[in-house]
Every structure is written in C-alpha cells, then in structure tokens.
Amino acid sequence: TQLLEQSPQFLSIQEGENLTVYCNSSSVFSSLQWYRQEPGEGPVLLVTVVTGGEVKKLKRLTFQFGDARKDSSLHITAAQPGDTGLYLCAGFHGSSNTGKLIFGQGTTLQVKP
Amino acid sequence: GAGVSQSPSNKVTEKGKDVELRCDPISGHTALYWYRQRLGQGLEFLIYFQGNSAPDKSGLPSDRFSAERTGESVSTLTIQRTQQEDSAVYLCASSLRGGYGYTFGSGTRLTVV
User: Fold this and answer.
1) Which residues are registered as beta bridge partners of A88?
2) Which residues of chain B have pLDDT under 50?
C-alpha cells in the first residue's frame, strides 16, 4: 500500500494544453516535495511546500498543499515538450521534517509537439 | 564535488555474485539516502544516514542488503548473492541536513542476469 498515491500514472497531451497531477494520502505530511526526473538521471527538486493551503508558483508550474496537509497538486499551464518527464511527489510522514522521505509512484508526462 | 557522484553508472552481474555500489555525497552534507527505483516506478526507500547517528535501515528488503558510511563521506551499498529481482536503478541522495534540499546522483543501473 502506497502512503502517497499519485494520479494519473500516465498522461500524454499536446503542446499548449493544461494538466494537473495529484498526490493524495490518508495521512498527514509535515511537508511535501515535488521532483522531476528525466531518463538516466536522478530526480531534481522542483519545490517544497510546508504550510497547509500553501500555493507556490514556478513559471508555468503551480503547486498547492492541501489545507489538511494530506494532499498536493501540480498544475502545468501551456505544457511544452520540455516538460516531458516523470513527476514525483515525496514527503515526510507525520510531524517530522527529517528521516525517511516517502515517494509516490510517479506520473509519467509526455508532451507532444 | 559539485554534485552527488555514483559509481559505477552501470553494472551487469551474474546471479549469485556480490556487488558494491558507491556514493560520494556533496561535501558537508550530513544526511545521505539510498533508494531503489524499478523501471518507470517511484523511489523505494532503503536506508538513511544522518551524521553519527545510528542509520535507519528499515527499508532494506532482506539481509542480503547492507550499507555503510564512514563519518560524513562516502557510502557503499552492498548486495550479496544477487537475484534477478534486484535489477533496478539504485539512487543516492544527500542533504545538508535531513529534511531539505535533497540532491540526487544519476544512479547505478544494476542488471542481474
């Protein structure tokens, strides 16, 4: 059983479309992180959200942490082929911000030109 | 170095052989993590080192897996009597302190034939 469930698992869209990836849990997380991973490389940290209800924007990417700190979303506006990759959410379970970082199973995004 | 360095980048081994994977973290990073990633999947936590504290080994899948870290430097992950199900990418990450700013290496792709 995954503590962090990501949906959808696969997404194939055309350039210019918008999309949202979800990361859900029945448990509380002290913070959540989003990573992007390209083939043959390690994940690269995009953002960390720590406060319930927090919204962070990174150019065309908008990240939100749920009020109850059990879920998060990543919204991409006007997707581009360069956004193609595996998107991973990860978090620290409970009240700690150290120790075991738990990952979701990932969302594979393909943006076609 | 500037980033987390892992070696070898690729390793093909025969079933039943032992393998040793190496991780050189970013200098000064006290926290070091090992993860396993199967094709197209999320990251599976293996072990976490934080300074001189006892490591969190709760993710090691069997007693064939072990890891060591000397102080705040190099870490090695050893898999004894490799099995085909051990085939995966093994990723290492380090952090200035546990909790924030994880930097991943590019991983070691292990294939057991």
Assistant:
1) A35
2) none
* All structural domains of chain A with their residue ranges: 5-112
Contacts of B8 in chain A (CB under 8 A): none
Q: Which fold has domain B5-100?
A: Immunoglobulin-like (2.60.40)
Residue A91, pLDDT > 60, answer yes
Contact A103 B43 (CB under 8 A): yes
Q: Which residue among A88, A101, A106 sits closest to B33, beta carbon to beta carbon? A: A101
C-alpha–C-alpha distance, residues A25 and A5, integer Å: 6
Inter-residue contact B99 to B50 (CB < 8 Å): no
Comparing alpha-carbon positions, the chain B residue that sits nearest to A49 is B100
Q: Out of A11-15, A73-77, A90-94, B37-41, pick the least confident.
A: A90-94
CATH class of A5-112: mainly beta
pLDDT reported for residue B33? 94
